Amino acid sequence: MKPVTVATFSEREKAEPVRQRLEQEGIHAAVHDESRLQRFWFLAEPVAGIHVAVDRKDWDHARHLLQRLDKTEHVLRNAVRCPQCNSSRVEYPQFTRKFFTPYIVGMVSELFEKDFYCEDCHWTWSQKDLAAARADTQATSARV
Predict the structure, then answer these.
(1) What are the extents of the domains in the chain?
(2) What's the whole-model pTM score?
(3) Cβ-contact 18, 75 below 8 angstroms
(4) Residue 10 pLDDT > 60, yes or no?
(5) Which ranges constitute the DSSP H helices of the chain?
(6) CA-CA distance, 42 to 86, in Å (whole number)?
(7) CA gap 136, 133 in Å, rounded
């Protein structure tokens, strides 16, 4: 299986129902936990470290299925999503397992703010940006 992420979560128990739902629809899926890697390399509380992945050949079908199921069953309500394109194919920090020397980067990255990275639209954003956007949305809702 050549795994491709279809959804990202911060907690394994939130990802497992999505994996099970994909399996019910005949798509083999697996949950990959990178939160231990984040905790070890980046010395931080894991965020967006749980990935539901399917085989590359099933990715398009799984993506469309999850979009449909999210509208009716809200299966992605707990997923980490890109604020730009709403995708749940997110990495945090943006240079985790794919980076050449994660240990060195992990140590150096403590000096810099870490960013989320969307695998679909390539948007990056920080937790601070996300919190500010949510605060603006709540303030706007309260005024209406």
Answers:
(1) 3-143
(2) 0.72
(3) yes
(4) yes
(5) 12-24, 35-42, 59-73, 102-109, 127-143
(6) 26
(7) 5
